Model the fold of this input.
Amino acid sequence: MKIHGSCHCGNIRFDLDWQPEPTQIAARACTCSFCRKHGGSWTSNPQGTLDVTVADPLLVSEYAFATKTASFHICARCGAVPVVTCDIEGKTFAVVNVNAFDDVDPALVDHATTTFEGEATDDRLARRVRNWIPRVRFHAAP
Done:
Protein backbone atom coordinates (compact mmCIF):
# COMPACT_ATOMS: atom_id res chain seq x y z
CA MET A 1 0.00 0.00 0.00
CA LYS A 2 1.30 3.46 -0.85
CA ILE A 3 0.43 6.01 1.84
CA HIS A 4 0.70 9.66 0.90
CA GLY A 5 0.92 12.41 3.48
CA SER A 6 2.01 16.00 3.94
CA CYS A 7 2.12 18.98 6.19
CA HIS A 8 -0.92 21.26 5.87
CA CYS A 9 0.54 23.51 3.13
CA GLY A 10 2.26 20.68 1.24
CA ASN A 11 5.84 21.89 1.70
CA ILE A 12 6.82 18.57 3.32
CA ARG A 13 5.32 15.54 1.55
CA PHE A 14 5.89 11.85 2.08
CA ASP A 15 5.17 8.57 0.35
CA LEU A 16 5.30 5.53 2.59
CA ASP A 17 5.41 2.17 0.85
CA TRP A 18 3.79 -0.07 3.48
CA GLN A 19 4.44 -3.75 2.88
CA PRO A 20 2.70 -6.07 3.32
CA GLU A 21 -0.73 -4.47 2.86
CA PRO A 22 -1.91 -3.40 6.35
CA THR A 23 -5.09 -4.65 7.93
CA GLN A 24 -4.51 -2.10 10.69
CA ILE A 25 -2.05 0.74 11.24
CA ALA A 26 -0.93 1.18 14.86
CA ALA A 27 -0.61 4.84 15.82
CA ARG A 28 1.15 5.85 19.01
CA ALA A 29 0.31 9.24 20.51
CA CYS A 30 3.35 10.01 22.62
CA THR A 31 2.55 11.69 25.93
CA CYS A 32 5.55 14.04 25.87
CA SER A 33 4.75 17.75 25.89
CA PHE A 34 5.97 18.30 22.30
CA CYS A 35 3.79 15.55 20.78
CA ARG A 36 0.78 16.57 22.86
CA LYS A 37 1.09 20.20 21.78
CA HIS A 38 1.61 19.31 18.10
CA GLY A 39 -0.92 16.49 17.80
CA GLY A 40 1.71 13.88 17.02
CA SER A 41 0.43 10.34 16.57
CA TRP A 42 3.23 8.28 15.07
CA THR A 43 3.40 5.11 13.03
CA SER A 44 6.12 3.13 11.35
CA ASN A 45 6.66 -0.10 9.48
CA PRO A 46 10.06 -1.80 9.73
CA GLN A 47 9.43 -3.33 6.29
CA GLY A 48 8.50 0.04 4.79
CA THR A 49 10.26 2.57 2.60
CA LEU A 50 9.76 6.31 3.12
CA ASP A 51 10.36 9.02 0.52
CA VAL A 52 10.17 12.58 1.84
CA THR A 53 9.99 15.47 -0.62
CA VAL A 54 10.61 19.04 0.52
CA ALA A 55 9.52 21.89 -1.75
CA ASP A 56 11.33 24.69 0.13
CA PRO A 57 14.04 23.51 2.56
CA LEU A 58 14.31 27.04 3.98
CA LEU A 59 10.81 26.55 5.37
CA VAL A 60 11.68 23.40 7.31
CA SER A 61 13.15 23.46 10.77
CA GLU A 62 14.39 20.50 12.73
CA TYR A 63 13.77 20.41 16.43
CA ALA A 64 15.40 18.06 18.91
CA PHE A 65 14.73 18.14 22.63
CA ALA A 66 15.37 16.13 25.79
CA THR A 67 17.66 13.25 24.68
CA LYS A 68 18.33 14.97 21.31
CA THR A 69 18.12 11.59 19.56
CA ALA A 70 15.22 12.48 17.24
CA SER A 71 14.69 15.35 14.79
CA PHE A 72 11.15 16.63 14.37
CA HIS A 73 10.78 18.07 10.85
CA ILE A 74 8.52 21.10 11.25
CA CYS A 75 7.10 23.13 8.40
CA ALA A 76 7.78 26.78 9.22
CA ARG A 77 4.91 27.89 6.96
CA CYS A 78 2.03 25.85 8.44
CA GLY A 79 3.55 24.48 11.67
CA ALA A 80 2.74 20.81 11.01
CA VAL A 81 5.14 18.00 11.96
CA PRO A 82 4.66 15.14 9.47
CA VAL A 83 7.99 13.29 9.94
CA VAL A 84 10.47 12.48 12.70
CA THR A 85 13.90 11.02 11.98
CA CYS A 86 16.68 9.48 14.02
CA ASP A 87 20.21 8.83 12.77
CA ILE A 88 21.73 5.68 14.26
CA GLU A 89 25.19 4.50 13.24
CA GLY A 90 25.04 6.36 9.92
CA LYS A 91 21.53 5.19 8.99
CA THR A 92 18.33 7.25 9.09
CA PHE A 93 15.17 5.79 10.63
CA ALA A 94 11.78 7.53 10.65
CA VAL A 95 8.20 7.61 11.87
CA VAL A 96 5.34 9.54 10.26
CA ASN A 97 2.39 11.36 11.77
CA VAL A 98 -0.90 9.59 10.93
CA ASN A 99 -2.61 12.98 11.24
CA ALA A 100 -0.71 13.99 8.08
CA PHE A 101 -2.10 11.08 6.00
CA ASP A 102 -4.01 11.87 2.81
CA ASP A 103 -6.84 9.55 1.74
CA VAL A 104 -6.32 6.76 4.29
CA ASP A 105 -9.50 5.32 5.76
CA PRO A 106 -9.48 6.45 9.43
CA ALA A 107 -10.95 3.08 10.44
CA LEU A 108 -7.62 1.50 9.39
CA VAL A 109 -5.76 3.49 12.09
CA ASP A 110 -5.68 2.10 15.63
CA HIS A 111 -4.89 4.96 18.04
CA ALA A 112 -3.24 4.40 21.42
CA THR A 113 -1.14 6.49 23.78
CA THR A 114 2.32 5.60 24.94
CA THR A 115 5.02 7.08 27.12
CA PHE A 116 8.77 6.79 26.76
CA GLU A 117 9.50 8.68 29.98
CA GLY A 118 12.49 7.18 31.76
CA GLU A 119 13.57 5.04 28.81
CA ALA A 120 17.37 4.74 28.68
CA THR A 121 18.96 6.17 25.54
CA ASP A 122 20.44 2.83 24.44
CA ASP A 123 17.04 1.16 24.84
CA ARG A 124 15.38 4.01 22.93
CA LEU A 125 17.77 3.68 19.98
CA ALA A 126 17.44 -0.12 19.94
CA ARG A 127 13.63 0.21 19.87
CA ARG A 128 13.86 2.60 16.94
CA VAL A 129 16.13 0.24 15.00
CA ARG A 130 13.59 -2.56 15.56
CA ASN A 131 10.40 -0.59 14.90
CA TRP A 132 10.99 2.53 12.84
CA ILE A 133 11.05 2.78 9.03
CA PRO A 134 14.62 1.80 8.02
CA ARG A 135 14.69 2.98 4.39
CA VAL A 136 14.35 6.78 4.36
CA ARG A 137 15.18 9.11 1.49
CA PHE A 138 14.85 12.87 1.34
CA HIS A 139 14.37 14.60 -2.02
CA ALA A 140 14.14 18.16 -3.23
CA ALA A 141 10.93 18.94 -5.09
CA PRO A 142 11.41 19.16 -8.87
Remarks:
- The chain has a mean pLDDT of 94.
- The radius of gyration is 14 Å.
- The chain is about 10% helix and 45% strand.
- The CA atoms of residues 32 and 115 lie 7 Å apart.
